[in-house]
């Protein structure tokens, strides 16, 4: 695959290193995604020097390597690979590669021996070792009391390595460049073969190649507070593992990589607050509880169990069961006002950050949250039976019944579902967001006329050229590139398609699935898509989009 590093960063499974090119000025950087998306990521700006003078570079990238060649002379180049999770290798031939760091106040670059330079990056609490295996390493880094006055690094005709670590550098034998490249190729081909499942038709091959690479390259290794391998949403801008985003990656991994799939769930179990809340996101440095996403883990885990018996193992099932009981208690105790349904405190809690449902004010009783909680209680009731907790099963069934009665009493009328907001729980007048249709997830509880009403509204008011718009296109709130005010999102598409297929609307489910497959051919693996044109919007290298695409493609291939 030809990889455009302006759209999809070059990286590898488990690595915090990546290489990407800016869209506005075309600068190319070696980056590092430790510390999450609020931390600085640029390590070195790259440039080529021919006969001592800067020259234009042509960039060629694949899943395995990035090559910067002198424009018009491909025999002069610098090539980058990431053969191990903590190693970035550079091979330079016939040209000088300049590494220009974004040097902070206390950052320090020092020579430890003839072929070793250590770089302390204070803002990231990170250390790098620059190692010369062969060639010429020309460096100027004059000291200025508390840091380097400037740092200039030139690499010529040889093989060089960057290693990242938190505390101490440990000597090791490095593979030669060709061997490292071959190892990397073998590893990726294995991943691609699992993701492709033998698919070799031309139609969706471009999307298959992108999605396979993104799901592989967006992983980071366990480090710091991360207890397992984490599929970050992106290494372009959004480099954390988010709650509810994580579930779609887990579903993709369940069949061939169950341990990795379980890691995506367990990361949040390990970081569960004593209140019962899961964090909004986790990275290697910290977890954030600013927003608390709706409880989708049990919906996911039930599907994981159907995909692979690995998830039926009692210890794992007990872990998600006990953890989810605490989640239910959190919403009951800390997110529920007397006589009301559990509420959101911000649009970001729902994942639908700026949806029109949240424009009137806070707090918001939303039918999607009620539906997630009802389905979660129903699943807990079934898990309790498996685990021999009959009394708890009855309690969860009763809790689900009570929540469902309250949902239909408070958030439903002859015109459909709606929300309430504020201390007086006033009805929200805006009813133009797709979020109000998510009670289709509990279609097994809804009367047939209610289901038919939901499906009719989906088809008449939300289905566009490429799928379900998140805001009615005729709504005054609709915005082109409006985030949750119109664009199509992969996880929401998955939830609707799965629900439609489960509750008697298979034809519509297949139609929407095929539209989503098509939109990736137009907009790539973007964070979201224009529902009319299919244009990819915002972050262009998104893992949950890639995961949902692959799940849908696997389903289509199985059908055929």
UniProtKB/TrEMBL annotation:
Family: Belongs to the glycosyl hydrolase 63 family.
Cited Pfam families: MGH1-like_GH (PF22422)
Xref: InterPro entries: 6-hairpin_glycosidase_sf, 6hp_glycosidase-like_sf, Glycoside_hydrolase_63, MGH1-like_GH
Protein's recorded name: Glycogen debranching enzyme
Keyword Iron-sulfur among record annotations: no
UniProt domain Mannosylglycerate hydrolase MGH1-like glycoside hydrolase: residue ranges: 239-545
Signal peptide interval: none
Keywords: Glycosidase, Hydrolase
